Task: inverse folding
């Protein structure tokens, strides 16, 4: 395993460990909306299948393509930015974070930190980490995984938006009108 691969693995594990640590919390609050989430065993089985398939694809297609140093460094910088943004956004979101789309009865619209710039900094962080991984370790397997992850984010954002707009109404509509979903506006304070 190269140093680049070890750093990318550490980045993804940081996010995974943080997810697992926070997903174990049991909320006593009254839930107004919760999207269906597959059972943990099914999710872990699917993850294992994806990783085995990626490993097979990586071996059968010759592994990563040769990467210029500048591309690797750029990819690692994007991955690091993704991890940093993810951890910061998660801390700002605090008790309102959950793995499945969940809206609680006393839900607030979080507008601090990265949520002042984009409505979905956690998804932006995952996309940065994904893009960084593809740049630093370009291969058929990483392109397939990146495509799947990107598709998942693209499908999940509208579901989450719908749940928040339906439950929080005008509070969320005002926030959404002034803050972009994923790409921060340039030139705004």
Result:
């Amino acid at each position: 395993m190269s140093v680049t691969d070890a750093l990318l693995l550490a980045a993804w594990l940081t996010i995974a460990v943080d997810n697992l640590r926070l997903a174990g919390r049991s909320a006593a609050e009254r839930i107004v909306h919760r999207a269906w989430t597959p059972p943990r065993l099914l999710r872990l089985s699917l993850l294992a299948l994806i990783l085995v398939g990626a490993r097979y694809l990586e071996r059968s297609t010759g592994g990563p393509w040769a990467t210029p140093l500048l591309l690797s460094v750029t990819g690692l910088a994007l991955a690091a930015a993704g991890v940093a943004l993810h951890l910061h956004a998660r801390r700002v979101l605090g008790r309102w974070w959950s793995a499945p789309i969940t809206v609680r009865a006393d839900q607030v619209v979080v507008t601090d930190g990265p949520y002042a710039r984009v409505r979905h900094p956690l998804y932006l962080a995952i996309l940065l980490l994904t893009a960084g991984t593809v740049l630093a370790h370009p291969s058929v397997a990483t392109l397939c995984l990146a495509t799947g992850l990107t598709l998942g984010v693209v499908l999940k954002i509208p579901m989450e938006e719908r749940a928040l707009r339906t439950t929080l109404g005008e509070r969320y509509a005002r926030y959404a009108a002034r803050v972009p979903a994923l790409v921060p506006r340039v030139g705004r304070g």
